[in-house]
Design a protein that fits this description.
Length: 148
């Protein structure tokens, strides 16, 4: 691992995984609406949301997906990692009070480019709510030593 406690590309192996969990609160939803500008009534107006197929308010999809970013930045590969791309599919709702478990798993390594392809899955209980794949640029011990 590098000096900031993240994994260098040389330390990663296909199959490694990490988890980040977060309970989505009312405050998270309101603050995300303010920060993003997404004030869709499905997120912030219970009376409106009750009239939708969801039967009540749901969290923003990107608020839910942000737990993937936290898993990558804080756990695997960790500090120093840079997002290159993220593909995702939203498959279920997250409601205020739900705990989202984001799991990232190394699918492929591109050593010469310091890239890792990660499977990304968010679940609430046993239900998948977001699934996809991320490509990230990692730190490299070999490149740091060569530059020193």
């Amino acid at each position: 691992m590098n000096e900031l406690n993240g994994y260098d590309i040389e330390d990663l192996e296909v199959g490694m995984s990490a988890r980040f969990s977060k309970t989505i609160t009312e405050a998270d939803i309101i603050l995300f609406a303010g920060a993003s500008g997404d004030n869709n009534a499905i997120h912030i107006n219970e009376n409106f949301a009750k009239t939708t197929p969801f039967g009540g308010r749901i969290a923003h999809g990107f608020l839910t997906a942000s737990t993937i970013s936290a898993a990558i930045a804080n756990r695997l590969p960790g500090p120093g990692t840079i997002y290159v791309s993220q593909q995702m599919r939203f498959v279920g709702p997250v409601r205020p009070g739900d705990t989202v478990d984001a799991v990232v798993t190394v699918k492929e390594l591109v050593l010469d480019r310091c890239r890792a392809v990660l499977e990304t899955v968010c679940s609430v209980g046993n239900s998948v709510v977001v699934e996809g794949e991320a490509v990230v640029k990692t730190t490299s011990r070999a490149r740091r030593e060569k530059a020193a």
